[in-house]
Write a structure and sequence with these properties.
Blueprint: H1 2-25, E1 26-29, E2 36-37, H2 41-46, E3 53-57, E4 64-71
Antiparallel strand pairs: 1-2, 1-4, 3-4
């Protein structure tokens, strides 16, 4: 039982680290208002991607849309 708990905690830590790394790398652009934004780590953890697009909510206009994922410019 302890081994299962440790395995689940380990998987959760790995998922959070991957989401944190993804948050720093990608940004989204709202197709409705044009706002460019990044997601928080929690949002990134629970957002899925289909062929380069993700359903996200714009923080400016508060509308849900399928937004293209873009690599952040340095």
């Amino acid at each position: 039982m302890l081994g299962l708990i440790l395995l689940l905690v380990g998987i959760a830590v790995i998922l959070i680290v991957l989401a944190k790394l993804t948050t720093k790398k990608f940004e989204y652009k709202c197709p409705k208002c044009g706002e460019t934004f990044s997601l928080s780590t929690v949002q990134e953890l629970f957002t899925f991607e289909i062929m380069g697009f993700s359903p996200v909510r714009c923080p400016k206009c508060k509308r849900w849309s399928v937004s293209p994922i873009r690599v952040k410019q340095k």
